[in-house]
Amino acid sequence: MTGYSEAEIPSATGLENVSLELQRLNVDLVAVKQDLDTSTPSGRLVFGVLSTVAEFERDLLKERVRAGIAQARRAGKRIGRPPLRVLSAEDITRLREDRARTKTPFRMLATKYRISIFTAHKLCAKRS
């Protein structure tokens, strides 16, 4: 039994590294239901092919997700989390003045204007 989870083996290379570590420890992998035994040459071949196919499937999934996001952007869809609030130009000016005049902490500005701390910081840094 190894301490590896599926998330820690993201590619065929990662799976190969686990396989090499098991070989170094003189441990063979036997999956009874899948009829896989890495102590035999054919079992090592099947293990290698399965890990390569799994990596191929993950790459296809990534490619489809990227294509879907690109298509959504082309269609004008918003990608990501919506803003907490869209500030008017007057609000942005007041926020910047509050920060410049009194050095109000970003956390207090964020609470006052109902925006995230990051947005408060970003708006005070921008001069457009």
Structure commentary:
It is a single chain. By secondary structure, this protein is mainly alpha-helical. It folds into two domains: 6-74; 89-125, no CATH class. 61% of the residues lie in helices and 3% in strands. The protein contains five helices and two strands. It has helices spanning 12-24, 41-74, 89-102, 106-113, 117-125; strands spanning 30-31, 36-37. It has a two-stranded antiparallel ribbon with strand order 1-2. The termini are far apart. 5% of the residues are buried. The mean pLDDT is 84.
Q: Nearest-angstrom radius of gyration?
A: 26 Å
The ordered H/E elements are HEEHHHH
Unreliable runs, pLDDT <50, ≥5 residues? none
User: How many DSSP E strands?
Assistant: 2
State the share of residues found in helices, binned by percent.
55-70%
The number of helical runs is 5
Q: What overall geometry do the principal axes of the alpha carbons give?
A: elongated
